[in-house]
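Section: Multi-chain targets

For targets with more than one molecule, the full set of components is provided together so that the structure can be written out for the assembly as a whole rather than chain by chain. Components appear in the order listed by the source. The example entry contains two components.
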Amino acid sequence: MTIAALGGQGGGVVTDWLVLAARKAGYFVQATSVPGVAQRTGATIYYLEFFARADAGEGREPVMALMPNPGDVDIVVASEWMEAGRAINRGLVTPERTTLIASTHRDYTIGEKMALGEGRASSRELFEIATAHAAKLIGFDMVKVADASGGRISAVILGSIAGANVLPWGIEEYHHAIKQSGLGVEASLASFEAGRQASIDAKAKPLTAAAWPSDHGSIDPSDYTLEAVPTRLRARIVDQFPASMRDLLGMGAARLSDYQDDAYTATFLDRIEEILGVDAAKLSDPRLTVSTARALALWMSFEDVMRVAQLKTRSGRIERIRREVRANPGDLVNVREFVKPRVEEICGTLPAGLGVRLMASAAARRMLARCTAGRRISTSTVSGFLLLRCISALRRFRRGTLRFKVENERIEAWLGQIKSIAPRDYDLAVELAECQTLVKGYGDTHERGWSSFSQISELALKLVGDPQSAARLRILREAALSDDNGVQLTRAIAQLAA
Amino acid sequence: MAERSFAKEVQSLRLTEGAEFEGEGILAVTKALLQSGVGYVGGYQGAPVSHLMDVLADASLILSELGVRFESSASEATAAAMLAASVNYPIRGAVTWKSTVGTNVASDALSNLASAGVIGGALIVLGEDYGEGASIMQERTHAFAMKSQMWLLDPRPNLPCIVQAVEQGFELSEASNSPVMLMLRIRACHVVGRFRAKNNRPPPFTLQQAMDHPSRTFEKIILPPSTYAQERAKIEKRWPAAVKFIRERKLNEHFGMDNPSDVGIVLQGGLYNTVLRALERLGLADVFGESQIPLYVLNVTYPLVPEEFTAFAAGKQAILIIEEGQPEFIEQAASLFLRQADVQTRIVGKGPLPMAGEYTGAVVIAGIRQFLSEFGRLPVPAIALVPAALLARNVPVRPSGLCTGCPERPLFASMKLLAREMGPMQISADIGCHSFSTLPPFDLGGTIMGYGLGAAGGASFNVPNPRRALSMMGDGGFWHNGLTSGIGNAVFNRHDGVTIIVDNGYSAATGGQYIPSSSAEIKGRRAKNRIEAAVRGVGVEWVRTLHTYDMKQTMSTLREALLTKFTGPKIVIAQGECQLNRTRREAPAINKRIGDGERVVRQRFGIDAEVCTGDHSCIRLSGCPSLTLKTNPDPLRRDPVAQVDNSCVGCGVCGEVAHAAVLCPSFYRADVIVNPTAWDRVKARLRSAVISLLA
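Its structure, encoded as tokens over all components, is:
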């Protein structure tokens, strides 16, 4: 059998346990591994072979292989979902004989994590491939089970092997192994049992693609429903927009009423109404309006200092944090925020006129720069919380701030473009609406995003009428998202020109 | 303190005659050394024999009881030179390291040792780091054996054979007055198995006796005319003696010779299990190693025994030589033997088998099958292999990276930020955990020239230029040779560059072994030798020491080093203790304090999902395993948000990065006060009371 684990998950411990269990059960066992540098967070492979002493006869011993051979492996255990895929890639999982036991949790690789947007490999696609290649697939979230049982994933892995019931010995041998190895026996036994149960259940009730509603995980739009929207506006959403859009608009409206006020939400709905007006597909499938509404709701709730302060002083936040950091009931939790507004952010919160003048004056900027040293504000102290609360309260003056002025102009320009393009090139307009996703983040990240966006939206106008326009714009957008120094985008634009 | 303790396992080194030894290959080698009456042991850690050094260190008590001298050498060259004790005295000595890199470092001493010859058995245990899991360039140790006339053992990879190889290695060495190398592949080092133990033997001739009765002969000195005589002795005496010993003691083995067959297979001992499994899969052997095809197993791959080759090949239509790695030394030699003996048997090797790359099960099966079908041994059942790289698109690569809380992370993040500010830099990287600076997300460093050779690798970039070149070096590499090859060289040649010495207190990448600058009290050794004192000692004038977690200081120090008017080498010592070792030391104490009800503050970082916009720029600057992704809880957003998972150790780099890079305000740090004092509770109650009014 093969165990594919990640550095630090204790694959070596599992191997030792299996060796002890096999010997107890009267089996010859040979185990080996290839850790190498992989011990440092990389993938690690352990390989074991068993042979019944009884079948060997007196004085004869089998010759055991030191590495898995395709078509030769009865059990493949993967302690992480993509490692199951790696094992399949290596040809170790064969439909004739291999039981694949895999944890469905993801431990994202650096490549997936670095992406500027969505870079995660598709867990659902992997599920389909796994079911196709394994004689039997036993999948469950081993990390969850380990946490719930208060033990380590290594013991859960051992339990999952016992539960799969492919190896020719019973629970006693496994227990014997855990006890003999000594350390943290009680916790290990508990997690072993939890893993064994989970494995038995998973065997009884096999995984289905439904486990991955989206490609990667499930989304729960719990706190966003039409109910959260003020009655007056709710009526408007119901009367003036296609039923298919109600939830989306509900989310947007609720978000903006919370962000600013109902008047602001009304502006949002006015804008969407105008888009709907130019949406040729409004009766069938209003893609343009849907894309624009989603993007507009996000853009109109751009993250300025007041917004951040508002979110950081939400009631219930401390409870959420306590859960996240696993504080026990008796523990106290103090929270420190890491905020470092740049001169731009500070000026952004000032009245437009003043902000512009300060930004223009080098002296003023230098002076401001001095007071922008990194701040660690403790929202658990009265003074810290009060400070953020006051900043948050400033949002009633938001419409007057420089940042609002700038963002509002950008939004108007963008909507204007969409409206002008829509009648001539519907798909291009949809793509342009989607481009809002480029403008995100804070500080430099936000500026880089904006520069990509403005370059692309400029080109959009030129593309009108081109039969490939939408596809081309999509290519540009993806290029902009493929690195954070704009090299790919520049290249893509050059190719477009050529 | 090494990453893995063998304190429990080493007790099995005390096993006596007839007892059954169970354990890892590396432990078995140690036991075999003691059974062989070894007098002194040394070596340098490195996968796959790091654990051998750890075992020896943990067994130091048992060793000293037997009167065996153990030393964890400063480098492989030091270890190899140690074997000098076997040149003039009948003392058995053994050393170990990772090959071929370690053998490269040791080869000066090895050449001299091999030329002088030994009278006490000299055994070099090599971890052949080749194939899957290897961390170095892919080369063969075989060439070293050939050039220096040292003998190379490649035993079948099971414990009894490995143990026997150690014992026979010493005898062969003494019978032929030549050093012997015992090579163990990665899996053989880690294989868990059993063998019948023998009693340990104290060295019959001790180092004390040698020091009391010093002996020397001019013939052993590496000076002409002795060197000419020594070369002749190699050819006329030692080599024939070795071949004679190998033949008479039957070190190489034959299997399945009774089966009439016009084809046969010659293989390196280390590949025996893989080949047997292949034959079994092809229906040509049973699980107990009964092969229908005659096998000639080379447990000694150098020197080869011409008579054995010709005898095995005679009367056969063809033989397949299964020899891993390149070039095909054995195949070439065999061709010569057969030609000279005018044996017309075809020799097949590279062709059905690939010239490069590891001989995995699938490769060997395919190779044997092709060979047999070419020479009419069909039908051989085809084995349906699942086409690999089926879903390469779906399975992202998982490169090694720095551990959670690694102190090198803030250093590389600082360098990446600095590169944004000052433009890309010429960086020469080195070997160690810090090699990961060359991987995403940092992508810093253009070359790695060898352990401790980071600064030397940047030596050429010493021409007048406004932009200075950078080089990196670990503390392990520094003490291994970097102090002289890099720093001393830079001083002597007035190098104007900047060298960063990563000072984490251990030889971390190889498993956290101690080095001269480790801060611990180590029995029998003297640590706490300061790197700064050493570099000043070789004449460096510009030295700065910084703590990597202070990214502001790190960046300003590096900026200063790159821009200062001072000409000459600029050394930046970047300190931060290896997190793995620190945790291993501190965690138990902290848990105890918590258990005793003491007040403990546990720090952890987190991210406000609503504030995070999913641009992941924090990840591109940190790459911490605990800084990961989760599906965006906001249905309006599509991009996954960053999140800090529960493996976070609160090292603080997230906050530092967020500030240094002016990243984003979504990070928070939670100070969890376990067992709070009464005053803590009062404060907290008052605060939350007021805050709930404000909220």
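Chain A touches chain B through 126 residues (CB under 8 Å).
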